[in-house]
Amino acid sequence: MPASGRRRRGSLTPVLWVPAGLALALLGLPLLAVVMRAPWGQLPELLAQPSVSAALRLSLITAVESTIISMVLGIPLALVLARSERWPALARRLLRALVTVPLVLPPVVGGVALLLLLGRHGLLGQFLPFQIPFSTAAVVIAQTFVAMPFLVLAVEGAIRASDRRFEVAAATLGASRLTIFYRITLPLIAPGVSAGALLCFCRALGEFGATITFAGSFPGVTQTLPIATYLQLQSTNPESAYALSLVLMAVSVIVLASLRDRWVPGVTA
Amino acid sequence: MRRALAAAAVVGMLLAGCSAQSPAPASTVGAPADTLRGTVTVAAAASLTETFTAIAAAFSRDHPNVRVVFNFGGSSGLAAQIVQGAPVDVFAAASSGTMKTVSDASRTDGNPTDFVTNTLEIAVPPTNPGAVTGLTDFARPQLAIALCAAAVPCGTAAARVFAAAGVVPSVDSYEQDVKGVLTKVELGEIDAGLVYKTDVIAAGSRVKGIEFPEASTAVGSYPIALLRASANKDAARAFIDFVLSPRGFKILTDAGFGAP
After folding, report:
1. Would B27 be classed as within a structural domain?
2. Where in the sequence is the domain holding A78, given as residue range(s)?
3. Among the four A82, A192, B48, B105, which has the fewest Cβ within 10 Å?
């Protein structure tokens, strides 16, 4: 079996290597350009600047928080989405569109939408006794808005690919629905959850548009690493911006490389 | 240099060929025949979007065979593009610092000319919920305050006026550009921000502007320059002359810009 599989994979027509190579160059060469241009010699002192370390710390903390919130809220949403087959077609499509929209929406639009909902004069915000914009909470909300769909869609794929007979068997043996969820469903979809969580974390880490629009930018409170990078790029010394870009890239590549082939279980198992 | 001229000549001939069939442009009786042709590409600061678009419309009435194309954006970004070799004829920057980046890289042809100035103004929501009257209100911690980040010209200017006034602002957000501050004022999310006078005028009734005396300590100049790489220097020079002419100046001052 492995031998024939290898032969089949080896039979990819050489013509396809050209566009595939171009695609890889388009995706990879810009990253290489940053690596080449980065001020390696000054890297330690550039990254030791208080504003940079504050942005790095804020970014890591908020991205972790956004990922946790996305898991707590997103996994149940993925279950609903995966089990929505019996719904009317319109409701099902609307639900799917709602989940997918933040993926394709320009993040700045997402930020404006969040302001119109949770801002001082927003639909809900006007009734709140406290102000959300310009707080770290606003950063987490903006990142969750943009990043949660990655987790939901990855988990939904995992649920669809999982074998439902285990759940049925557990039910016939008298397990409650909650027990089935914790003891059967979650372990079955765990690879999908971890893949989705890592993607979600990376997207939250890179979030810029929705964050600066909804949360603003204040060092240590709302100025995340991407915002600090952009501001450094505007200044007369872009070297710091290259250094920060390198850090963001390194974190993302390390996290994504740890994904290996576990994008969706069942496909590569 | 010679190659650039040759390219200009070729472009000119091509365009002349294209317009041969079209009716001759109506020109003022007695005025010399308009020999200017081709495209002028202008890289201009985002704050010039409305005024330069109006100036180009007026310029095109005088020179119907010249097409003015704009690239509006943040001055520092535009300067970086020009230094990297972007094909631009004219650069109009929102600060002398960004123009200096371009002239230091010897991308300018001749010295830049300051054509207008812009002054900071306090912008508050129309109802002025924070009862803001001057710069000292920016120190009140209970107000939501936004300024430009120090990396962009309006942030540098803001830092200068606060230093002059001896006020330490209690800032909630340092925005990436002046439009970021303006949007948050328009949405009523902040009680006060510092923007340019021209932004207040352009925003109309959506924001209220409050002038303050310390603004005179940070008046920003806008320089304009012909670029060395220009392939259509005659038309580019005519456009710069038009910006500097009384007609161009009136469009700019109507929008809130000051004399250089």
Report:
1. no
2. 43-257
3. B105
Q: What angle do CA B133, B208, B223 make, to 5 degrees?
A: 100
Whole-number pLDDT of residue B74: 80
Co-location of B77 and B159 in the same domain: no
Q: Is residue A264 part of a domain?
A: no
| A222 interfacial to chain B (CB closer than 8 Å) | yes
CA distance A233 to A39: 14
Q: Would the ipTM clear 0.95, i.e. be above it?
A: no
Q: A25, A29, A26, A40: which is closest to A242 by C-alpha?
A: A40
A139 touching B (Cβ < 8 Å): no
Q: Based on the domain organization, do B98 and B10 belong to the same domain?
A: yes
Predicted confidence at residue B23, as pLDDT, reads: 42
Q: Which domain holds residue B105?
A: 2-17+39-117+221-254
Top mean pLDDT of A194-208, B70-84, B144-158 is at A194-208
Q: Are A243 and A38 in contact (CB under 8 A)?
A: yes
The answer to whether the beta carbons of residues B123 and B147 sit under 8 Å apart is no
Most confident segment among A143-157, B27-41, B62-76: A143-157
End-to-end CA distance of chain B: 32
Instruction: Residue B212: count other Cβ atoms within 10 Å of its Cβ.
Output: 19
- Over residues B186-214, the pLDDT tens digits come to 999 999 999 999 999 999 999 999 999 99
Write the pLDDT tens digit of every residue in B14-60: 444 444 444 444 444 444 567 888 999 999 998 898 899 999 999 99
Domain annotation covers residue B32: no
Decide if pLDDT at B12 tops 50. Answer: no
Contact B113, B240 (CB under 8 A): yes
Q: B19 or B243, which is more confident?
A: B243
Query: Could A134 and B144 be called an inter-chain contact, meaning their C-beta atoms sit closer than 8 Å?
Result: yes
Q: What is the CATH number of the domain that holds A77?
A: 1.10.3720.10
B-chain residues within 8 Å CB-CB of A219?
174
The count of structural domains within chain B is 2
Radius of gyration of chain A (CA): 22
Tell me the Cα Rg of chain B: 21
Predicted confidence (pLDDT) per residue in A199-247, tens digit: 999 999 999 999 999 999 999 999 999 999 988 877 767 788 888 999 9
CA distance A231 to chain B (A): 6
Domain count, chain A: 1
Task: Inspect the interface and report whether the beta carbons of B172 and A216 lie closer than 8 Å.
Answer: yes
CATH code for the domain in which residue B127 is found: 3.40.190.10
